[in-house]
């Protein structure tokens, strides 16, 4: 999959997802962060959480809601 504007740094964690709209809460219960909703730009194919830097990659052929 072609990734436009690849990030300059390695993410601490990467998840492959099936939908362009996802939520991140840090995944550590009370040690996580406030839940944020993120939208993956179809051209870029990925988005990073502004709190924990977790990277979400859109799976090949995915892109639904």
Description:
The model has no long low-confidence stretch (mean pLDDT 86). The strands form two sheets. Strands 1-5-4 form a three-stranded mixed beta sheet, with no helix packed on it. The chain has a two-stranded antiparallel sheet with strand order 2-3. The protein is mostly beta strands and 65 residues long. The two termini are 19 Å apart. It is globular, with a radius of gyration of 12 Å. It is 0% helix and 29% strand. It has no helices and five strands. It has one domain: HSP40/DNAj peptide-binding domain (Sandwich).
User: Number of helical runs?
Assistant: 0
Average pLDDT, all residues: 86
Unreliable residue stretches: none
Counting helices, strands and paired strands, the structural category is: mainly beta
The CATH superfamily name is q5lls5 like domains
The level-1 CATH class: Mainly Beta
Q: State the helicity in percent bands.
A: under 10%
The value of Rg in angstroms is 12 Å
Name the overall outline. Answer: globular
